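Saturday, quiet lab. Running sequence design on the structure tokens for the scaffold JK sent over.
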């Protein structure tokens, strides 16, 4: 049995310890916001927060996570009120939306650790692949999310 915390709730998985976190989250915990993209750790669709670090759930065996704290997109915000979610929606960034949970997780961790990231910081931290090509709007949306996080701006339609 493997025990750790997911979205502030203790969990115990009776799965093979080699089971990737992605499948434990999706199949055993019904947390389907974390997406399966490539299964090789290349695309970032399965990005989650493990102890404050962006990690690829498809590459993390649950047996190695004993005692850790995992946050998924569901645990980040129940109502899309996180500044990254607000900014991406306001800038009309999501298209098909498949990659967005991983991008939101990577960006939210970046902003927690760096309240004023440069364009280079954003591009280094958010390396997720998006087949829809949202990249031109993504950097400016994350910069906007940083300003929201710092209390410098609001997003029309959110909390006003």
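Result came back. Writing it out in full:
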């Amino acid at each position: 049995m493997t025990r750790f915390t997911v979205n502030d709730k203790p969990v115990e998985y009776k799965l093979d310890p080699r089971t990737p976190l992605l499948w434990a989250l999706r199949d055993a915990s019904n947390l389907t916001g974390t997406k399966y993209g490539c299964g090789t750790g290349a695309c970032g669709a399965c990005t989650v927060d493990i102890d404050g670090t962006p990690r690829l759930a498809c590459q993390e065996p649950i047996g190695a996570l004993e005692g850790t704290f995992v946050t998924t997109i569901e645990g980040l915000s129940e109502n899309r009120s996180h500044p990254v979610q607000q900014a991406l929606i306001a800038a009309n960034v999501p298209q098909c939306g498949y990659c967005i949970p991983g991008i939101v997780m990577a960006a939210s961790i970046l902003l927690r650790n760096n309240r004023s990231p440069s364009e280079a910081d954003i591009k280094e931290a958010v390396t997720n692949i998006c087949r829809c090509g949202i990249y031109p709007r993504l950097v400016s949306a994350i910069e906007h999310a940083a300003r929201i996080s710092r209390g410098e701006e609001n997003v029309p339609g959110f909390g006003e």
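Notes for JK: Strands lie at 2-6, 9-13, 47-50, 53-56, 69-71. The longest helix spans residues 135-149. Ask whether to fix the surface positions before the next round.
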